Amino acid sequence: MGGKRLRLRRFFWRGDNRLVLFPLDHGVSCGPVSGLVELSRVVSYGVRSGADGVVLHKGMLACLGEVEGRLPGIFLHLSASTQLGPSFHGKVLVGSVNEALQRGADGVSVHVNLGDDAEPEMLRDLGKVGEACFRWGLPLLVMIYVRGAHAPKPVTDEAIAHAARVAGELGADVIKIPAPKDPEVMDRIARCVPVPVVMAGGAKERDEAAFLERIQAGLRAGLAGVAVGRNVFQHRDPEGFLRTIVGLVHGERAAREAGT
């Protein structure tokens, strides 16, 4: 078994090819937002709730030393921009595959925004990271969105499908996209790339039941799971809600039951 396949098993350890990611990389782009002030506590309840993987920036890997029990898979996030700068959607690399290996991560993640002025540079960086991941056997999560001055407004399902295909074509091992509205498009996305696709949880959702139904619709359409951040760490009961999502994705509860 190659190194990449072995490391991917640390995320897909349940054997059902489904995945719940807990992305906690918001601090660079948005600062210490509500729910993410004490990151060690957040990572700890994410582990207790059964998240299959977390996404962290390099400096926050130190939080893992305070976590008790079995750690989930760790994606080291390599992309950054801030809301304080002139180009929020233009992501730059702030780390490398070699650094991720030396820091003990199980994989790396890269964020790309198609339609931004910096799209060519982000695609170039994705290619470089993908080549290094192939060389060193490290899984690559690609978070890909359609955002920026040249993006269609509103963003269409077809544009999201195009973004997913770009990630698949350029070597992603796992793809994170915003969920298309049309289930048929979700099904087409799941069939047009050879790797698992997870839907982004998105902005904080007031309607909890609708959020869970959206996850269920994605699973029915062939998506592999969800990457959920704000809808967990800004929830009134984040640990309980993440446990509900994990149960839903891994088939332990139906969406209607999960909403009760």
UniProtKB/TrEMBL annotation:
CDD domains: DhnA
GO molecular function, a single term: fructose-bisphosphate aldolase activity
Alphabetical list of InterPro entries matching this protein: Aldolase_TIM, DeoC/FbaB/LacD_aldolase, DeoC/FbaB_aldolase, FbaB-like
Pfam families documented for this protein: DeoC
Source organism superkingdom: Bacteria
Catalytic residues of the enzyme: 145 (proton donor), 176 (schiff-base intermediate with dihydroxyacetone-p)
SUPFAM superfamilies: Aldolase (SSF51569)
PANTHER family according to UniProt: 3-HYDROXY-5-PHOSPHONOOXYPENTANE-2,4-DIONE THIOLASE (PTHR47916:SF1), FRUCTOSE-BISPHOSPHATE ALDOLASE CLASS 1 (PTHR47916)
Protein name: Fructose-bisphosphate aldolase, class I
